[in-house]
Design a protein that fits this description.
By secondary structure, this protein is of the alpha+beta class. The chain has four helices and nine strands, in the order H-E-E-E-E-E-E-E-E-E-H-H-H. Helices cover about 25% and strands about 25% of the residues. Helix 2 crosses helix 4 and helix 3 packs across helix 4.
Length: about 240
Amino acid sequence: MRHLFFILIGILLLASCQENDRMVYEEKPAVYFSDYMADADSLQYSFRIKAQDRDTIYIEVKLLGDLLENPASYRVVALDNSTAVVGKHYVALPESFEFKANTSVEEFPVIVTNPGEEMDTTTVTLELALEATEDLDLGYPDQVKMRLMITNQLIKPSYWDMPLSLYFGEYSQVKHQQCILIMGHDFPLTDDELLDWGGLSGYNYWMQQGRAVCEYYATHTVYDENGNLITVWNPF
């Protein structure tokens, strides 16, 4: 009877191991855009950020599955419904990019170019999509496409409502332009870049600049683009 008991235990353990094996991720590694959704205006870029006519934007891609033991290639293509024109608004993408081994996140560059005054009143879109290769499949279906908006107009930073509003108050284009004049530059493209701007730790730099802008409006009467008086706020 005791012998039969141990046989039953062994059968149960074997079945349990087989079930766990089936639960392990066994698909080919796949790539997806980590922070961008197909139906959203994923990323906005203005040439006013750095006051130059050519810049490189780095877009993040993540790996789904186990880390790679060897580098693998992945493809990014520009879709036909893009309004951005290759050679005019951006440089043609290479045939493929490399996803390095032993990492879960990579970045690929997109070089954008400003053709001239038309961008002062126009925004073009560059629709990008990941494509499967022999090395890598596609990840989450709703995160394999993204849209890059390119212009030379003022763009409200995507992170203004939090945390920039703590330092600069309510957004307006007039205030945004004054911020550029006082700071000597525009706000960075992404909130990640806020952490290192100005060589100071954390958001100390933005705290200082927010107070300087607030002081300007405490001593000047200025109206925004909608005719509303820009009033002082309590900078963090």
